[in-house]
Amino acid sequence: MSQSHEVELAGERLIAVAGKGLYWPSQSTLFVADVHxxxxxxxxxxxxxxxxxxxxxxxxxxxxxxxxxNAQKLVLLGDLWxxxxxxxxxxxxxxxxxREDHPDVEVVLVEGNHDVKSGRLTGNxxxxxxxxxxxxxxxxxxxxPQEDPSGYVLAGHVHPAVxxxxxxxxxxxxxxxxFGDKYGVLPAFGEFTGCATVSPNSRDxxxxxxxSRIFSVSCSTAA
Length: 223
Known about the structure:
Blueprint: E1 4-9, E2 12-17, E3 21-24, E4 29-32, H1 39-45, H2 54-69, E5 73-76, H3 89-101, E6 106-110, H4 113-118, E7 127-130, E8 134-136, E9 139-141, E10 152-155, E11 160-165, E12 171-179, E13 183-185, E14 196-197, E15 205-210, E16 213-217
Parallel strand pairs: 4-5, 5-6, 6-7, 9-10, 10-13, 11-14
Antiparallel strand pairs: 1-2, 2-3, 3-4, 8-9, 11-12, 12-13, 12-15, 15-16
Helix pairs in contact: 2-3
């Protein structure tokens, strides 16, 4: 196991990192999905008792992975913010400060379902908001996993995970990168996001994230 794993998609070399990002070295571009900033604030606003600080931690991890890859462009594959209620003055202030701390990084946001509910970004965020199926050849930037004739789709939304089973019937559910023939799905980047068990086929490549390590598993290992 290591902190990164190289993959080839649409003839391009990319590096999946254990921090739940996918780095494209030739274009100095980092892809992440489902950041869900402000989810802790949104849950607290509805009376659900959760620890405060998830937004701070998520932004810190985003900074860390940018430094790790030295990416000059960050593509967010949907759901930057969890909900409008999560945009508290404190949380949004942290986000604005984070953006000011990375002035040289170009940031692109593909509109996801939670972005629609949260509304347009305000303030001097300098983030380009684009629609589903934006082309970044040879990739098609999406939030929803789907096939597209224009290129290989990179998406999020699902929060993919697989269940690994041991010989003694032990089982553990872990987030993963899921790369199929026509599209790839990134794990959810944010805190409190949860995950959904996916069912890859024998041709798919699955990279499991376990803390600070990432490793490939066969479909026979993943339940």
